[in-house]
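User: Modeling request: complex.
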Amino acid sequence: MPEAKKISTPLTDEAIAQLKAGDSVLINGTIYTGRDAAHKKLADLIAGGAALPFDLRGQIIFYVGPTPARPGNPIGSAGPTTSYRMDAYAAKLHELGLKASIGKGSRNAEVKDSLKKFKAVYMAVTGGAAALVSKSIKKAEVVAYPELGPEAIQKLEVENFPAQVINDMYGGDIYEEGRRQYERN
Amino acid sequence: MKKVNLSKVKEKIKQAVQDANFNIDPDLKKLVQNCLTTEEAPGGQVILKQILQNADIAASEKLAMCQDTGLAVFFVEMGEAVQLEYAGFKSLRDAISQGTSEGYGEGYLRKSVCDPLSRKNTGDNTPVFIHWEVVAGDAFKITFMAKGGGSENMSALKMMAPSAGAKGIEDFVVETVSKAGPNPCPPTVVGVGIGGNFDTSALLAKKALLRKPVGSAHAEPAYAEMEKRIFDRINKLGIGPMGMGGRTTSLAVHIVSHPCHIASFPVAVNINCHSHRIVEIDF
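Assistant: Request completed. Predicted assembly structure:
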């Protein structure tokens, strides 16, 4: 396996240009959590022309609803949720400057097009490896919608958070490429 | 007549919902370990190792293996000769529900139940989902399954024509897993319900997931062979661990069948992720 590329937020267009489908990356810095209910609220704010609870420019959203943290831990188990449920919202967020999302599973054509158009990437972490993933999260703070419980938006400080680039800004898709490579008749 | 105290039931449920989420099923772990010798994709190897490493961390620190700690699904088989001692509980459902609520709370498990339209979280992972079966004698067994949403969403049911035959079933199961691709967290366990009617076929598919040990063959050779054929086809799809490409797409295919109407041929596919959290409690 080739060595992982280190990236940190805020992400620039130049940093995104370096990432190719299939790359392993280690993320350092700040990432935000958000899944179904939080995305609905962000979409409503955008539709109403209101300010968002955080500046999307250069940022990463991790599709996750963690378990509650045990005392002494910054966060509970925190693996990815399935990303297609956020497909309806992704293009608009990329237009507003979001540079990456992290989840698991396939994205639709609209999302893949928006990655090209707005220079962004879609990444995945290993689903069901939520205890392991939580070890790279050093701090967590709810920044919006505490009433949503596990679906609240949290700001996470991460160290060497391990992800894989699934869709890059050039149209590459490791799910399709990987499957083609190992498919047998 | 066997007497069972509901406060004991509540305590056992409270423990079981936590055990299921913290500890990998030992038979599932063996299947994942075996796949390390057969998986050709280097990326797939990395993911299989992460699954095992994650299980070690989860067990030692009492952390949920997956943040989606699931809907609490129960299968209750209760003998007619079992007498319940209520101990202040309203019902057996009440004891199971309280055990779930306390277990999800004290175990720092995620509460993943909400109203379908308002999406408001119920806050304690109830209501629970219980499938009841009254059996003869004094047997009393409760099986708990923590069922994640990602794999559940990739499940499917089809009312086929009887002319579709065995080939029709096999094609539908493979097509369902193929369409699901990376979404249900492969390597998966695939439960197949054949026959029954619209509602029972889905339940048969879920019951198929309960077979212990996971990966063991159907008792009837014809179904065992069908399981093997489906399993081989699925693992030729190339989806691989977490859909990154590879040979390990499913760890097991289990079938449960039931007689059906002469006009009908229902088939249901219930996919489970590699967390496969199922715990049996005998009373």
